[in-house]
Design goal:
Low-confidence stretches: 1-40
CATH topology of the largest domain: TIM Barrel
Strand order of the largest sheet: 6-2-1-11-10-9-8-7
Number of domains: 2
CATH architecture of the largest domain: Alpha-Beta Barrel
Strand content: 5-15%
Mean pLDDT: 91
Radius of gyration: 24 Å
Helix content: 40-55%
Length: 556
């Protein structure tokens, strides 16, 4: 059965049992040597959970696995560690920074088995180079931090030439390998800021950065090989930033290429072919919520998913392992509001972009909401993806609306007053459209309500800015009433967001109640809205303060 026929077969049947490389004996000298000649392994088609930045309830992760099964996805990449902490309680190293609601090994093992029984391989990701403050943020391992001189403060790496680093990561790999039956172990290794430690500077006198990179990744691969696992690493440095790494890597290592701004399949296919030409395997990794987005992904992100789906479907090599769609920082979005995007991604990965564009949302509405499809639903999804705002700092070249961050201080309020008028996307119209359709929803009604609430949030964020910009032009004496209106609407929205959060997230989650390290206001939607409501309530209680700000603005 050739690759195309296999894909067509998968699209028309129930989810098959996984046939993943590495489930049998491992062959360091030849990839897939146990496979019949010309037969590609079952391609990965999956989603990602960023549990390390915001732990969510176990029932949600089980539900996500069920969704993968229902939409013929066979993998869930589960990010267990990041700068913010570990989502797994490591018995071997309990001293690491660990989230209060982290999974016990027993719970994690149960989740992995839950996935296996449903044909969904839960692939653990342990950050092994950058994104490693869960290690270096502890006094015991602070000496392993290896920030590049003059480099960014974020993503400070572990020292790759300190023997203690590999020893520690080996402990973590061994524990994770005993919990997760997946043949794969993702080691992270993206966005690494390293090279300033005494040991690294000494090593760099005799070796290039690419050499040190490759030697460290090959050492991680050797650990995985001893555990019967296959190592996956991110491809940003390996392929793009330090291309000298790639030819030096063990041929067992799998490269996961993420390029979230690319919307054409050709350059993505070229990267995958480059990886294959060097004797390694490749996984494509588009994004849903990435740096460029807030509560929702826009139309351009669908095109990124399309491009990866089509690029990897077009490759005729058994070194292409498929596509896993990433999704980052859950505190940016409402937990239940992204199922339509997941369904679009699943359709694109299984059937290609042309089919996804034509039928993905119809299939989602009929299967997930149990509602009859009509032109109203089509207009609703088309409009939402078209008008979803991007973040200016992360997508400066993209056209369209920009994401407003609710002002929560006097300085931010003054900044909005100084800014010029902006075009307000028609979120009020969009919310009205969806409201007219909700009565026909028969299944997963709370999820449809979360989708509506995400629209309401964006509508409110734009409304706050627009009425504030008009405030200096209003008649004298109306300022106090305006601020009371803003404060009242702020509080009502916060109550709705709080209730939605409690459906599937922990009430005392750090991301809800306080600023999180390396996450900004746009990354903590509910926490930021709470701050904004607190500030507007303060101004509403003291009308003179707001009037004074307006007078100073008018005089200036």
């Amino acid at each position: 059965m050739n690759r195309l026929t296999r894909r067509q077969f998968l699209a028309s049947t129930a989810v098959p049992a996984l046939n993943l490389p590495g489930t049998g004996s491992h062959h360091a000298s030849g990839l897939f040597s146990s496979q019949p000649a010309g037969l590609a392994p079952e391609p990965l088609r999956g989603l990602t959970v960023d549990a390390a930045r915001l732990p969510e309830k176990l029932a949600y992760y089980q539900r996500l696995i069920d969704f993968c099964r229902d939409w013929k996805l066979n993998a869930l990449l589960f990010r267990l560690t990041d700068d913010q902490g570990s989502m797994l309680r490591f018995r071997s190293h309990p001293e690491l920074i660990t989230h209060p609601h982290a999974l016990t090994p027993h719970e994690a093992r149960g989740l992995a088995r839950y996935g296996e029984k449903r044909g969904v391989s839960v692939i653990p990701e342990i950050e092994s180079f950058g994104h490693s403050r869960y290690i270096t943020g502890t006094p015991r391992y602070a000496h392993l931090a290896d920030r590049e001189p003059g480099g960014r403060r974020e993503f400070v790496g572990l020292c790759p030439v300190d023997p203690e680093t590999l020893s520690l990561i080996g402990d973590l790999y061994r524990e994770v390998a005993s919990i997760f039956p997946s043949p794969y172990l993702h080691g992270g290794c993206d966005e690494v800021n390293w090279g300033g430690s005494e040991l690294s500077l000494r090593a760099l006198r005799t070796k290039s950065r690419a050499q040190i990179w490759a030697e460290y990744l090959n050492s991680l691969d050797a650990v995985c090989r001893g555990l019967g696992k296959e190592l996956i690493v991110w491809g940003d440095f390996v392929v793009h930033k330090e291309p000298g790494i790639l030819p030096r890597l063990s041929k067992r290592i799998i490269v996961m290429d993420w390029q979230y701004y690319v919307t054409r399949p050709q350059p993505l296919a070229r990267v995958a072919q480059q990886v294959a030409d060097n004797g390694l395997r490749a996984i494509g990794a588009p994004a849903i919520i990435s740096c460029a987005w807030g509560p929702r992904a826009g139309e351009l992100q669908l095109r990124n998913i399309d491009a990866y789906a089509d690029a990897y479907r077009s490759l005729r090599t058994n070194r292409s392992l498929g596509v896993i769609v990433t999704n980052w920082i859950p505190s940016r979005y409402l937990q239940r509001s992204l199922w339509d995007t997941f369904a679009y991604a699943a359709t694109a990965l299984n059937l290609g972009s042309a089919v996804a564009r034509q039928s993905a949302f119809r299939s989602f509405v009929e299967r997930f909401y149990g509602a009859p499809w009509n032109r109203g639903w089509q207009k609703t999804f088309d409009m939402y993806y078209r008008i979803t705002p991007s973040r200016r700092s992360c997508a400066p070249q993209w056209p369209g609306p920009r994401l407003p961050i609710p002002w929560a201080s006097e300085a931010e309020l003054r900044g909005v007053l100084r800014s010029g008028a902006v075009e307000v996307p028609p979120f009020a119209e969009l919310r009205s459209r969806l409201a007219s359709l909700q009565s026909r929803v028969q299944s997963n009604k709370l999820d449809c309500a979360a989708l509506a609430l995400s629209i309401e949030y964006l509508e409110h964020a734009y409304w706050r800015d627009s009425v504030l910009r008009e405030a200096p032009k209003a008649r004298p004496g109306s300022a106090a009433g305006l601020m009371r209106d803003i404060a009242g609407r702020d509080q009502r929205l916060v109550e709705k967001l709080d209730a939605q959060w409690d459906l599937g997230r922990f009430a005392d989650s750090t991301a809800r109640v306080e600023p999180v390290i390396d996450l900004g206001p746009a990354d903590q939607l509910l926490f930021r809205m709470r701050q904004a409501a607190k500030f507007s309530a303060k101004l509403a209680a003291d009308g003179g303060e707001f009037r004074g700000i307006l007078r100073q603005h008018s005089a200036g």
